[in-house]
Design a protein that fits this description.
Udp-n-acetylmuramoylalanyl-d-glutamate--2,6- Diaminopimelate Ligase, Chain: A, domain 1; UDP N-Acetylglucosamine Acyltransferase, domain 1; 40 strands; disordered C terminus
Length: about 350
């Protein structure tokens, strides 16, 4: 659907510099843009490329100006970029109703505005809220609940008693509520500890593809409101993740650890069990966390430690080859060995 530059600026709370009646028909990166497209620039290098592109208009921060292109200037180009993309590429509309190839228990409560796609299974006493979408091949176990506007992409599995909030998006292949990894050594065998808890997911959470979130052994595993979880993440039983956290790909969080609000775990971070990670903590990629972390700290490394301490160690290690050469030269010149011995002269 085409929009005028004035309509887009109004939607983004920005201003137009140039023709505010110009019609824009698409949104594209500068390298792929064609006449009629809006493109995006958030720094000087991107802006220079955008000015030389075929795009008709540029979405940019208010500090930029141009004699070559129409500008839509906004306070924050990155935020406006996200809003503009949603304008040009709206979510597909799924019609209300239950597909004839879906299996829905008679005791389930499915809002009439919900969409239940083919090969979905909805268990006993399940509650599915308004405008929910179950695309295809979804399994929703007994006594689970989905809040309004929640969207399950294909082949998502929700075990019984899983509770999902409103406006939650769960991507393909994710499993929520599977057994936690709990065993106790009984003689010569590992005896399974029954996992009888559940998973509770707050509003506005997004969960990537092929994520596994285990239910609690006793009580719930909890994902807080607004948290975003990337692909291939493992969250163990009774973990509690706070609000608005970012958990990046291939992170593993061991059982009963607790994360505060606005925590960022970069790719492949490992969090040990029964730890407390404070509010506004950032943990760098591939770090292994084995101790509690206080609020507002940044930790790196394996084992993870405060970032300044870790960086000093890295710098020291980088100097080692040169230091070893200097020591060898010192020993040669003065005929000594710094391990305590001495060469004969």
């Amino acid at each position: 659907m085409p929009f005028t530059t004035a309509e887009i600026a109004k939607h983004l709370q920005g201003e137009v510099l140039g023709d505010d009646h110009a019609l824009l028909t698409g949104f594209a990166a500068a390298e792929q843009a064609r006449p009629g497209d809006l493109t995006f620039a958030e720094n000087e290098a991107f802006f220079a490329r955008a000015e030389e592109s075929a795009a008709s208009a540029i979405l940019a921060d208010s500090r930029f100006s141009s004699t070559k292109k129409i500008l839509i200037r906004v306070p924050n180009a990155r935020i406006a970029f996200a809003k503009a993309l949603a304008l040009f590429f709206p979510e597909p509309v799924h019609p209300a109703g239950i597909h004839p190839l879906a299996v829905v228990a008679a005791s389930a409560q499915v809002d009439p505005t919900a969409h239940i796609g083919p090969h979905c299974t909805v268990g006993e006493r399940v509650k599915i809220g308004a405008r929910c979408v179950l695309q295809a091949g979804n399994f929703v176990g007994d006594d689970a609940a989905l809040g309004d506007d929640t969207h399950l992409f294909p082949n998502v599995t929700l075990y019984p008693r899983t509770e999902i909030g409103r406006r939650v998006r769960v991507h393909a292949g994710t499993t929520i509520g599977s057994d936690g990894y709990g065993y106790v050594l009984d003689g010569a065998v590992h005896r399974k500890v029954p996992q009888v808890g559940n998973v509770i997911i707050g509003d506005d959470v997004e969960i990537g593809a092929n994520v596994a979130i285990d239910r609690g052994a006793l009580g719930p595993t909890v994902i807080g409101r607004g948290t975003k979880i990337d692909n291939l993440v493992q969250i163990a039983h009774n973990v509690e993740i706070g609000e608005h956290c970012l958990v990046i790909a291939q992170v593993g969080i061991a059982g009963s650890s607790k994360l505060g609000n606005y925590v960022v775990l970069a790719g492949q971070v490992g969090i040990g069990g029964h730890l407390k990670i404070g509010h506004q903590v950032t943990v760098g990629a591939q770090s292994g966390v084995m101790t509690d972390i206080p609020d507002k700290a940044t930790w790196l490394g394996a084992p993870a430690q405060p970032d300044r301490q870790f960086k000093r160690q890295v710098l020291a290690i980088q100097r080692l080859p040169d230091l070893l050469k200097r020591i060898a030269e010192f020993e040669r010149r003065f005929g000594v060995q710094l391990d305590g011995g001495a060469e004969s002269t």
